[in-house]
Amino acid sequence: MGAVVDSGSERPAPLDVPAKRVIVARSSRGDRIFRGIVSAGALSSLVLLGLIAVFLIVRSGEIFGRFGLDFIFSSDWTAGAEADGSDSTFGVWAMLIGTIIVSLIAVVVALPLAVGAALFIEFYLPERLRSAVRMLVDISAAVPSVVYGLWAVSIFSGAASSWGELLHKFAGWFPLFGVENEQYDRSPFVAGLVLAIMITPIITSVSREVFSRTPPDLVNASYALGGSRWGAIRNVVLPYGSSGVVGGTMLGLGRALGETVAVYLVLNLVFKPNFRILESQGGNVASLIATKFGEASQYEIKALLAAGFVLFVLTMVVNMAATYIVQKKSPLES
Amino acid sequence: MSDTALAPTPAPIRPWKVTPRMVAPQLGLAFGGAVAAMAVVLATGLAGFDGWLVVFVPISIIGTLLLSRSKGAVASVDAIVGNGIVTVAGISFYPIVSLLWTVISQGLDALLNWNFVSSDMRISGPDDELNMGGALHALVGTLMMVSIAAVITLPLGVLTAVYVTEVRGKLRTLVRFIIQSMSGVPSIVAGLFIYSTVVMGMNKFSGLAGGLALAILMLPTVARTAEEVLKLVPDDLRSASYALGAPQWRTTLFVVLPTVRSGIVTSGILGVARIAGETAPLLLTASYFTATTFSPTEGPVASLPMFTFGLLQSGTEYSFARAWACSLLLLLAVFVLFTIARALSGRDKR
Amino acid sequence: MTDVKGHEVTKMVETQEAVAVSSRQKAGLEARGIHAWFDKHHALEDVNLFFPENTVTGLIGPSGCGKSTFLRILNRMHEFIPKAAMAGEVLLHDGDIYDPSVNPAEIRLKIGMVFQKPNPFPAMTIAENVVAGVKLAKLKVASRDEVIEECLTRAGLWKEVKDRLGAKGGSLSGGQQQRLCIARALAVNPEVLLMDEPCSALDPGSTLRIEETIGELSKTMTIIIVTHNMQQAARVSDYCAFFLADGGPGHLVESGLTSQMFTTPTDKRTEDYVQGRFG
Questions:
Q1: Is the model's pTM score more than 0.90?
Q2: Which of A108, B90, C68, C240 could be bridged to C261 by S-S, CB 3.0 to 4.6 A?
Q3: What is the domain partition of chain C in residue ranges?
Q4: For the range B199-203, what are the long-range contacts, defined as Cβ-Cβ under 8 Å and sequence gap of 24 or more?
């Protein structure tokens, strides 16, 4: 063969290609120990998550064994006096439905508020105020839920129930907004709004971060074509940041699904599936656990552990879906 | 060039700057709208801020439409959407401003009594006057449990991050995925887990159990923040170290980690800020105790969030004042932690 | 004497002189006494340039001499940089584009821009990218498809993409993306097209295609192009302006017919630069 072979012309005979060498990098003893320690540390987190699932299911196995799918699909929660639980019935259906309704209300309300706030911070707020407001949002994302609960109970829930009343007055024909009893406090609507307020900063914070990373090239291109600020946001910023917004929303949804204390304080738990969101009765698995835990018998505690397991699975599914969506939609490469 | 060189340099101007004159109509609209909305609220009996908002928003939209009408369709849409975004942002900031304001104004009542941070509730009840009893037991308990959580989580979190970014072990995708999922574990589930293991095992509530439950919640925050920080270390640095013949463990310990020292500390601080106010897991693990205890293994331990939660349920005037003061303490802690984290986060860059 | 394109040759120098000499030529765009600052830093000093209609002017000079800043001042993109300031005026049809009564978005419609790095909108298809400006500015067009075909043809890209107009803009090669960006800029019918080193990220083949496109376009529009590449300036431009920042703010050293600038420059520094002795 010739000395230099053009990639486009004839190729050298296969014989000329040597076998690939296998590169063996023997690591030093120090490195092997180091990797061992690090791997052990990292894998312990794996084991931990596995243990959570295993322990919850082992300790509550008796409940799942006895009630089977009825534990999930029935709504009766009666703790009897017998120690062996023979006169008890447990089912989380109403609580599960309630959890989902309350969380959906929260996300539906919080998402537009958060996206608006994120756009405001990154594109409308004067530069010198920006970092202070960013910090305000980050802090509100870290305000403990018991503080939100306190504020909700003493300041917010009164206003929220009057909004519920108004909503019923003007849109009561819509099945979701109908009521049987004229009582509007401690309803899924109120709890959903409180949760919305809690998760808005979380979604805002994540969305703001991705919006601020929009490539300036693209924003410039939009302006150079005679586009307005809104034009740049709609054509460039929102498409670019959508996966981040979805990720932030899922994070918020996860928090809403598992929220205990704030919901406990503003929601009236009733063991009956309720789709009329303005009515003063709802459900939430996490606050069920908090409510019943104090006076529960050994047998009921097993049922609460089972409820915890159901909640665990629900949030895991949402989280994994979120991770999947974000990865699939993720960065628009240019 | 040479003949113009002597000409005086003109003053820099910014012709695109928005002048007060240009925003005057907007401000006039906002002010006029606000007053008009107020008048409507007073006249019709719509209630409070929400009623006012309901009147103000349509006024502001119509006004903006009229003001921008002469500038063409694009400018009109831009102005209206801009108006909407500002309004939505205002609505979304309102609750947090209201919350901060109430916590500060109501919390100072009890907090301004020295005994609030120097005594506990052993001999006082939640409805006692504010010059009796305090939150010392809760402060001590929170510090104890947060410390336990931090001591466990920091090394584990950093090891996890190092595994993902430096060692790049075979399971790193799985580990990242698990950490990601763990950040979504509801706090009450973490509490149930520790209850079903530690509490049932020891047959009593304890500070140790509380700290462990908090650690589960703290781990993902620390691991993920530390991972983000380690990813920022340029590969050149690692290559340079390897090229000098350093083994991986030396490269990691003496080159990579020291460059991001403050970032690692930040990850710990953010983790603490995440857990310091958690109530639900402590409800099932540490429970509550009225006296100050320093032992993590001997029975229930108080904490700020649990104290607040209990006070809230008593529902009297003084118990609420105490609850607000506890909330203020928690918010102060979060604020201080964030300020430190922010001061540190600038440090590692160059 | 006439240049390659048959324009009446006029030496294009500082404006005062230019106005007198080139009174027979219509202005495509004119810059008077332009200064630029970034915060306290004085980046550009007293630039006067006259761009005759339907010609190509190359802005040349070493990095950091202020030529890109100058270009961004010409269509009000300068103001997006925080703390930027300027002085002087830019005249389009005798009107100052910095006049407070002027809507900057409309100016950017009339004075289009192509950037250094190809930046098609990644979430849009090729066709959507071309008409993105039409949509952004809510312009009325008789037929969207005709605009797409016409602009892609003028940008020299039609033949390559006509069968996959629905593909994402990001799926094209770098050179094709840049021509897509040119088509996108053309779709809103600008009178002036600014190009900021449009070929610096491209291979020689794509560069050639874009230079051909520039030649075609200059029959109907005024083009101002910033380039680092002397050969490119010599190939595509009718006029050249040489910027330099020797220590102080960037300023205009010399400007005139490209042929003269490359053969008989009046300033020693221009001669050194075009012959590649520095920069």
A1: no
A2: C240
A3: 15-274
A4: B199/B284, B199/B285, B200/A59, B202/B297
